[in-house]
Amino acid sequence: MSASPTLPDSSDPVTSWLKYLEVNRRYSAHTLSAYRRDLQQLVTLADGKALDQLVNGNIRHFLARLHGQGHSARSLARMLAAWRGFYKWWSPQSQMSTNPAADVRAPKAARGLPKALSVDQTQALLEAPALVTMTDPASLRDRAIFELFYSSGLRLSELVGLDIDYTHSKTYSSAGWINLSDREVNVLGKGGKRRSVPIGTQALECLVRWLEARPQFARPRQETRASETDTAALFIGVRGARISPRVVQSQLTKLVKLAGLPTHVHPHVLRHSFASHVLQSAQDLRAVQEMLGHANISTTQLYTKLDFQHLAKAYDSAHPRAGRKSE
């Protein structure tokens, strides 16, 4: 049994493309890891054939094979998007006549609704006694994290990348930061798109309390192990390093159990809850699009379906003839 192909070393165009996305487009480590897997799949399917020798028919054949192996339409669409993006960047440099993935279409996937907590569930989570009664630094940090998630609808990568304020040097520049005086958070989202989002009063108060406690975790600036990203970071761990997405997920999972919520909640659910609840109250789709940092309003429009579900439930519970068959 032969070993599976592996991506070449740093001189390989795939590696160069991923580096370009990381440095120039500020893609998250999670997205880059997914793209790397998708390009590894392409290398495997090519079975020794050079990537610059692949043509449109090869790409179609590869997708058909993967579909036959049971890959979902959503998975295939994501994979094709990675291949297409790679060739769009590499084709002009390698003097390929066309992008072999340019006009290939993946099977259409039914677009599911984003999961969101109800207003009552969100309140139960953020006001859980295990969170609001504790005054140790870790608890103050976690409360500030979850209040800010729900207050401003950030992505997980955006939140963990926040700095206390804007920092710029020869070796480091802030991707995101908070501005307490203006009550706003500035982030660099997908595709290098920058946006500012308001910070609510509850989140603002929690951030102030966390910043007062933060020095108990922070390393001295002169300590050699303290990097610029750690000293600038808004949220840090007990050893003074910038908090990781995995720690945020772990802490949220613990809180959900302590709050007694009957559902699995990951950080993105708080982003969805923010969008759904703001839309229910304000009915301003464009404003929600701006705050979420969606490039396409069709992505934001998914939340109008959540809003309709909310109204439908209210109707079913309130209307005296809801659900009855006409006689």
Topology overview:
Elements: H1 13-23, H2 29-46, H3 56-68, H4 73-94, H5 119-126, H6 129-132, H7 137-152, H8 156-160, E1 162-163, E2 176-179, E3 184-188, E4 194-198, H9 201-213, H10 228-232, H11 245-259, H12 267-282, H13 285-292, H14 297-300, H15 302-318
Helix pairs in contact: 1-2, 2-4, 7-9, 7-12, 12-15
Describe it for me?
The protein is mainly alpha-helical. The protein is globular and about 60 Å long. It contains 15 helices and 4 strands. 54% of the residues lie in helices and 5% in strands. The longest helix is centred in the first third of the chain and has 22 residues. Strands 1-2-3-4 form a 4-stranded mixed beta sheet. Strand 2 and strand 3 form a beta hairpin. The chain folds into 2 domains: 82 residues, DNA polymerase, domain 1 (Orthogonal Bundle); 195 residues, Intergrase catalytic core (hpI Integrase, Chain A, Orthogonal Bundle). Helix 7 packs antiparallel against helix 9.
Task: Give a quick set of tags describing it.
327 residues; mainly alpha; DNA polymerase, domain 1; hpI Integrase, Chain A; four-stranded mixed beta sheet; 15 helices; 4 strands; globular
Question: What would a concise description of this structure say?
Answer:
This protein has about 325 residues and is mainly alpha-helical. It has two domains: about 15-95, Orthogonal Bundle (DNA polymerase, domain 1); about 120-315, hpI Integrase, Chain A, CATH 1.10.443.10.
Strand proportion: under 5%
Q: Architecture of the largest domain, according to CATH?
A: Orthogonal Bundle
Query: In the CATH hierarchy, what is the superfamily of the largest domain?
Result: Intergrase catalytic core
How far do the termini sit from each other? 69 Å
What's the β-strand tally?
A: 4
- The low-confidence parts are 1-10, 303-322
Q: In this structure, how is the largest beta sheet organized? A: 4 strands, mixed
Given this structure, which CATH class of the largest domain is correct? Mainly Alpha
CATH topology of the largest domain: hpI Integrase, Chain A
Radius of gyration: 23 Å
What is the average per-residue confidence, as pLDDT, rounded to a whole number?
Answer: 80
Helix tally equals 15
Count of folded domains: 2
How does the overall form come out from the CA principal axes? globular
